Structures are given as C-alpha cells and as structure tokens.
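Q: Could you write out the predicted structure for this multi-component system? I'm mainly interested in how the pieces pack against one another.
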Amino acid sequence: MSARPSSRRARRRSRSSAGPVAVWLIALLIALIATVQPRSQAEVERSLVQADPATLAFSIDQLSRSNDALEMQISDLAQRKSKLQSGGSTAADQALQAELDQLRILEGLVPVHGPGVVLVIDASGLTALDLQDALNNLAAGGAEAMAVNDQRVVAGVPIMQTAGGVTVGGTLTPPPWTIVAIGDTNRLAETADAMTQQLRGDRRVRQATYRVESDIVIRAVVTERPFVYGVP
Amino acid sequence: MGRTQPLSTALVALVALAVGFLLAGQVKAQLLTPSNQVGRNQALIRSVQDLERTNQADRASIEGLRAEIDALEVQAASQSQTTQGLQNQVADLRAHAGLTPLHGPGVEVDLTSGPPGSDPSGQNRNLITYQDVQDLVNLLFASGAEGVAVSGRRITPLSAFTGSEGEVIVDQGPPLFSPIRIVAVGDRNGMEAALGDPNSVPSLRIREIQFQLTLRVRGAPDETLPAFDGSLEAPHVGPA
C-alpha cells in the first residue's frame, strides 16, 4: 500500500516534467513545419519556372545583341521607306536596285569582298557534322559571307557525309579546310579563337589556325535553285 | 526533490530553446541562399522578359515597314516598266531569301525533350539542343527543302543557331524551348525518306532511345512558312 502513493507521486512527477518538454517539442515542431513547409513549396514552384543564372545571362546577352541588329534593320527600312515616299519611280528604282544588290550578296549569287578571318583546319576523320558546326559557329559569330575551299556556303547549301568524304553543295571537299568568313573582324576573331582552341584539343586535328585579314575576296558563287514545289 | 523539479524543467526548457534557436537558425540559413538566388534570378528573368518584349515589338515594326515598302514599290512599278522589271527581280530574290511566305507540299517535324531526370548522369542529354535543330534543318535542305521554318522562325541564307541547355536561338531570337516544330516546304518524298533513314541525325536517334527524346515526322500536302521578320543587315560585305 505504501508503494502506491509513492508510485502515484512518481507518475505525477514524471507527468509534470514530461508535460513541458512535450509542449516544447510540439511547439518547436509546429513552428518548424509551419516555417519550412510553405517556403519549401514556394522554392520548388519557383525553381520549376526558372532557368539557371548562366542560361538567363546567355539569353540577355543574345537578346541584347539581337535587338541591336533588329533596330539597325528598322532604321535601314525606315530610310528606304522615306526615300520611296519622297520620290517617284527614280527613287523606287534606286531603292530596288540597292535591295537587289544586297540580296544577291546574301544569297551568295555574286562574288564579294570585305574584312574577315581565314581558318585552316587540317585533320583526319572530321565529318560533315564537324564542318556544319564550324560554319554555324562562324555564322553565329557574325559571318556575312563564307566559303570552304573555294565553295560558297550559305544556309541551305547541303553539306553531306558521303562514302568519299564531305561534300559541300555536291562537291567533294576533303581536308585541309580553308574557311573564309567576311564580317565584323572583332566578333569573328573571338569566335575563331575559341574554335581553334577547341579544335586543337581534338585528337583528330593536326592543325587549327586562324588569321584576321582586312580584305578577303570570295569569288565562288551559289547557283540559284528555282522553286519546284514551293509557291511564294 | 521539491527544488530539483523546477530546476530540471527550466533546464529542459533552456535546452529546448537552444535547440529551437539552432534549428531555426539552420533552416533560415539554408533558405536564405535560395531566396537570394531566387531574387537574383527574378531580376534576370525580368530583364529577359523586357528584352523579349522589345524583340517582339521590333519584329512587328520590321514586318510593318516591309509591307509598307512593298506597297510603295508596287505603286511605283505601276508607273514604270523599268521599275516593274526591278520589282519582279527583287520579288524573286526575296522569296529565295525567306522574306515572303512560302507554301507547298512538305513535312512537319516535332522535336520534344525527354522527361526531366531521364539522364541520370545529370548532363541533361534529354534536352533538345540547337545542334539538333541545326542538324535537322541541314538534313531537310539536303533532301529537297526549298524553305524551312523553326517554330515560326523562317530560315534565311544568313541563319545561324545558338543556345544553351534546352534553349534554341535562331538568328535574333527569341529563345525557343521544347517542343520545337520544324516545318519544311519542298520535295516531300525526299524529305520523308531522309528523316526516315535510321542512319540520319545519329545523335538524336541515340538520345531517342536513351533519354526518350521524341522525333515525330508528318508529311503534308500543303504547308505554309511565314516570312522572315528579323534583320538581314550585312554591313561588312560588298560586291567584289
């Protein structure tokens, strides 16, 4: 019997000491869950719609450069429009002739010249995809006219891998490849530098060099293909 | 005994408080960094969105100006045979440069990234890259395309592809993301045969199997390509 009161006291003591601890723990847990859970959910939701900062920085750089190019085009078109509005057929003839000359250059239909870079890549085992990548990098780096081993290249000229090697516009074009690109020499040199550094790390590549030239002439032209299926 | 009970309760409370502070501090420290990152990212996102809006507005201006110039040239051409002749030549070159819409038989290629996490190496090879789009566009031209558009962006003789993981930029943007639709007008049979060749676009074929990227091809009797609405400025090159 005597044990009972003492055991009751002990239980009461244990209940009285466990109570505050439990309260503390529960309060602590509630506080932590209440704090962490909504914020974690918010973080997850945000991360779903976000690209990483490097991607965003790349986009900003690209879009800024693109918008500059678009604004330059707007200014050119606005000038052309006011010229057309101000004059009669003479002004129209001048504007049309200027556009005709510009489009012939862009489509690779006439020989061209201008400042640029000359890349020489000597390698064994490089494929059409490697050449396409090189030309695309230069185009993205500001090339306005290009040729590979005296073959004019514009987007749409097929670069193919055949049993005999790489063909450009149907012509077999074995390495070494001499790629000439006309355009903004600062941008092109930066691109060519990065390209040649990367190529020199490729075991297949024997030589990858570039030089900047103040005036390059590209005499090769593309033969215009008439539309067979498409209707403008 | 009577003095030890409040003492132990106070001790437990003190320890719980300390632990609580420590845990809260830890949680706060862990959450602060992502929150700051989120803040920085949001600022970057706002910049991208502003630039995209400018990009869109500039494109609309270019489209409008080209239409106005076209109308003025038509008007001038109606008054002079020389102007008419020049205008016909320009119209032909504009069509080849992608400056006017083009329609005819063709193919649609839908390219979709693999599901998130399907590349366990963390290299994101499940994502579409600009090289994938570049390879497909080259394949289409090589197999008979007379005109190509990538998610509504018309390819021109000066077109170039750039981008970063999962992001594809054609010429002056804006960035394109999966799914990407490439539409080509031209030799439909030739293009379908090239796209159906299991040896074409090898990088895509392998990643289709490994990382569940999808490449769907559909031929169509009449596809329409939009006109290019970007810049074709080439200030450094002139006739030789």
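A: Regarding packing and overall arrangement: Residues 3-49 of chain A form the longest helix (47 residues).
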